[in-house]
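Support reply, case 0932

Customer input (verbatim):
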Amino acid sequence: MSRMPARVRSAFEAELERARSSTDPDQQWRALERAHILSQEWAWPHTRAHWAMLRLALRCRDRREAVGQVVRLAFGGIASATGRAPLGNTGRTDVGIFTPMQIPEDLAAVLTADATTAR
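Our regenerated output:
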């Protein structure tokens, strides 16, 4: 398993920090979705993204989202480790767990910039 490239890790950590520092739940969710997209190829960061999503779901008292995040926590790291994480998926419960989605252009640029060193 490869390490997350520095450029991707930096963008991932920035999104997690943006989620932590915001007081607006919609902005927090958006930042965590972006962190999730960046993390999907790497088991531990992917798990961290879902852990942060579970914590936010609990703070928002969103039972459906919290249950969905527990399921994703159980399988997300495994999906990353086996190459089965659906790229672009935002990681939320309103999206199918195996549904690939289009990656936003700015995140795609971060992910592809280090494509040769990431694999």
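We compared this against your earlier run and they match. Two observations from our side: The chain has a mean pLDDT of 94. Residues 79 and 85 are 5 Å apart (CA to CA). Please reopen the case if you see a mismatch on your end.
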